[in-house]
Write a sequence for this structure.
């Protein structure tokens, strides 16, 4: 096998591994119960900002759809919670580097605009949870 083919196959395997890892982590976080006694639950419970996304009024994998500037979007938000007159939403990212950061910010803006359209009287705030280092980063506020 030539070097180009080996490089191509290596890159495809890395991509497949990254996709599978991201899917597995999303599934674990979707069904996570804070009462569980595992490392992830303990990590989330130890952070008051993060733990509210797994509170009683929180929802996982929330579908949302609508039109922005004439373009239709159908999306799924990883976690969402209503607190008083505010909607907080969270998107998980498993990247070890932030090379797709601008793309993620655009997606978060779409989520926020769709939520704002559906819930115009609510303040909308979106966060990314960087799973690799458990950093919770505020991305957008409307």
């Amino acid at each position: 096998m030539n070097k180009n083919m080996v490089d191509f196959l290596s890159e495809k395997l890395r991509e497949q591994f990254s996709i599978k890892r991201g899917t597995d982590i999303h599934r674990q976080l979707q069904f996570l119960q804070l009462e569980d006694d595992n490392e992830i639950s303990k990590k989330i419970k130890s952070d008051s900002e993060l733990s509210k996304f797994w509170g009683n009024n929180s929802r996982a994998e929330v579908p949302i759809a609508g039109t922005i500037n004439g373009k239709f979007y159908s999306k799924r938000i990883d976690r969402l919670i209503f607190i008083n007159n505010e909607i907080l939403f969270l998107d998980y990212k498993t990247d070890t580097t932030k090379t797709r950061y601008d793309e993620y910010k655009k997606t978060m803006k779409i989520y926020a605009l769709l939520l704002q359209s559906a819930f115009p009287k609510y303040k909308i705030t979106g966060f990314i949870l960087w799973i690799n280092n458990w950093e919770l980063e505020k991305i957008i506020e409307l």
User: Anything to note?
Assistant: The chain has a mean pLDDT of 84. The two ends are 53 Å apart (CA to CA). The longest strand covers residues 71-83. Strands lie at 58-68, 71-83, 86-93, 123-130, 135-141.
